[in-house]
Amino acid sequence: MVSTPVPDTLTVTRLECRDPLWSGGTIRLRYAALAGETVAVEFTEVIELPAGLDHVPAATLDPILRLLSLAASLSYFKAFAPAAVAVPSGLTPRERHFLADVTRHGLGEFAYVNRIPEVFETVIEAPELPEQAAEQASEPGEPRRALVAVGGGKDSIVSIEALTAAGLDVGLFAVNSYTPISRTAEVADIPLTSARRTLDPALFALNEAGAPNGHVPVTAVNSLIAVLTALACRFDTVVFSNEASSSFGNVDWEGQQINHQWSKGIEFERLLRESLPAGAPQYVSLLRPLTELRIARRFAEHRAYHRVFTSCNRAFKLRESDRTSWCADCPKCRFVFLCLAPFLEREALLDIFGGRDMFADPAQHGGFLELLELDGLHKPFECVGEPAECRVALGLLREHPGWRDHPFLALPQIAAVPVDPAEREEAFAFREHEHFLTPSLEAVARAV
Fold first, then answer.
1. Is 97:29 a contact under the CB 8 Å cutoff?
2. To which H or E segment does residue 283 belong?
3. pLDDT value, residue 433
4. CA 422 vs CA 233, 392, 413: distances in Å
5. In this predicted model, what pLDDT tens digit does every residue of 268-322 receive, in sequence order?
6. Lower Cβ count inside 10 Å, N or C end of the chain?
7. Alpha carbons 157 and 407: distance in angstroms, whole number
8. How many CB atoms lie within 10 A of CB 46?
9. Residue 431 to residue 445: CA distance in whole angstroms
10. CA distance linking residue 422 with residue 201, whole number of Å
């Protein structure tokens, strides 16, 4: 897979999404950056599934491959933004809507950080294809075989334990598996099915040369890879563990709510479910009606996983030498420390973080204020819970015999944080009607 970097003399005006190719379990996603009518650079991304797709009817498989191609295109599009997106083979109305939404909302943080509001009005150039009635999925039934996405963190662990306790046939899934993921599968004693995603190396060369870079909705891509893996391995349901808190945005800008977790939120879940064709596995997030704090309360009981899980992004660095379980110096580490503290003995929590007390580290105090949205700060661009949940966690710490006398809680800005009783009730409530769970899955979620 060899590509040529974009020459400085060319200005890319659009990214062209070509039809994906597949053979067995290998999928090739193809893109070209065009300067006028001149091809400036071509990309090929490779997805390797754990099994072949030859048994899947084309009427089901082809639309899913096209959705994956559209979602994955954003990794390459952002290097040339603002530009147009072209799909020469055409788009159905449903596909056009999918691409417009994942671009506008999934690249919201990228647009905000790079100050490129034009991304919100990205032009889509594609002939109109007719919508086929057979393309729309029918109402899903109750799951029989569930493929559960595992990220190595507490949320997917709670889903695994809840589903297996309910007697469901569960398999585990990951894209580009890392140590926390494989160790989670070992503790669960459930086989792990992995797919591999390899981006075109030319993209990294462009980034190093100064092309626009930033956050993309990777969960959108991984969700579609999970759907294809479920088809390949004959699972009827794909289960993610995205919670209610992921739908809460970070900041309003240029008339848009910017949400780092948009592709984990309920809007994307609805979009993908409406976009999948008939015959596709159903896609659902088990923990959608629950908050991070309620999930943390349940996770605290699953002590066998406490030594293997992590939510820190530094555990997933490309170079193994850069990886660590918990850096204790990022928003995700601070949030997990804060939301687990009310439900664990002090020593048990410190043991998870290698003996480090993040509340006692003055260098972390500003980050905790950010989680609470104090001093004019906004929720950090990371997968963390709502500020109200963080306030409730503080209130619970004030009542916890192992934490209530901690000097952190006496800091003036922390001590002044109020806790509304209504916020505490909401932090543990089951959010009715904010999910797509079948009756049996809803019962599983309610038991968490």
1. no
2. strand 282-285
3. 84
4. 45, 10, 22
5. 999 999 999 999 999 999 999 999 999 999 999 999 999 999 988 775 655 555 5
6. N
7. 32
8. 14
9. 11
10. 50
